[in-house]
Write a structure and sequence with these properties.
Number of strands: 14
Order of helices and strands: EHEHEEEHHEHHEEEEHEEEE
Largest sheet: 6 strands, mixed
Helix content: 10-25%
Distance between the termini: 43 Å
Oligomer: single chain
Bound molecules: succinic acid
Shape: globular
Length: 290
């Protein structure tokens, strides 16, 4: 019998699921996972034995898979990317190594992402998530009054500048991240506060990797307020930190969380496979503010 009622990592984040083999999970199991996903925003499903065909197949239970801008997929599986850091990549950045929600700069950012742990360092390489609904609920009034009803600008361009400064074409490391991608480098406006389409919760939809400014202000004039909001969202109270084990899957709600890959395992290889589930344009707090 699957154990779907284990404690979550925090009161609002990170349900743990054990005793399930996703390769032959039935509708009842998927509906419990879906429920945990809505309630806890990140679901960790332990001890899976998947090949990439399985990963693609089980990911389709969550939604349609999307191809990603600027990241070269696994050659045999265009819906899958390998998130890889090799043992000899010392003193370098790591993919996802700052707070972000995946591809928030797209007009329709992903609804969810799925990461599958294939090969892990003996210690380190954890991932953190932040609950953006809890962050909005507790946002001090002087900040809330400055974000409600406003739009922010997202773009992938600064990530490229930070991660491909020398080659200008590729992420430095074992992942191929092509830059100068018009889709990633465009500026896209989204509401700063969005309503979750399933739970109805209000949540901040901003992140330090891709959100560069308020739509009605310059980057310079936006910097202080954005920093105060990012500092609030990443307070320990709103985050969880997960220590991976091989075969574990994390399924997260990309609309309601940010995440952060901890880069503390130089000298060891870490290989994860990721699929990404298509989403819709974020909805503002009021239906008219999309
Ligand atoms: C990502 O941002 O998708 C990577 C997360 C991780 O490697 O832990």
């Amino acid at each position: 019998m699957p154990e779907l009622n284990q404690p979550s990592l925090t009161p609002t984040l990170g349900a743990i699921v054990d005793g399930v083999d996703l390769r032959d999970a039935d509708e009842r199991v998927w509906s419990k996972i879906q429920h945990a996903f809505t309630q806890y925003k990140v679901v960790f499903i332990l001890n899976q034995k998947l090949d990439l065909d399985d990963l693609v197949r089980i990911s389709r239970n969550i939604g349609d898979l999307m191809r990603l801008p600027y990241i070269e997929p696994v050659s045999t599986h265009p819906e899958v990317i390998a998130v890889l850091k090799e043992a000899d990549e010392i003193n370098m950045g790591v993919f996802g190594g700052d707070w972000h929600s995946d591809f928030s700069f797209l007009p329709a950012p992903p609804m969810a992402s799925i990461l599958y742990a294939q090969e892990l360092p003996p210690v380190g390489g954890d991932t953190l998530w932040a609950d953006m609904a809890a962050a909005y609920r507790t946002l001090p009034e002087h900040l809330r009054s400055q974000v409600d009803g406003r739009h922010v600008v997202h773009t992938g361009a600064p990530y490229g500048v930070d991660n491909a400064p020398e080659l200008d074409e590729q992420f430095r490391g074992s992942m191929t991240v092509a830059r100068k991608n018009p889709e990633a480098d465009a500026e896209v406006r989204h509401p700063a506060v969005c309503r979750h389409p399933a739970s109805g919760e209000l949540m901040l939809f901003v992140n330090p990797t891709y959100t560069t400014r308020f739509a009605d202000a310059s980057a310079q004039d936006s910097a202080e307020l954005l920093k105060a909001i990012f500092d609030h969202c990443t307070r320990p109270e709103f985050t969880c930190r997960f220590r991976w084990s091989e075969g574990c899957i994390a399924l997260w709600d990309n609309r309601a969380t940010m995440h952060y890959a901890v880069n503390d395992y130089d000298g060891h290889r870490r290989l994860m496979y990721r699929t990404t589930i298509a989403g819709h344009a974020p909805m503002g707090a009021n239906p008219t503010s999309c």
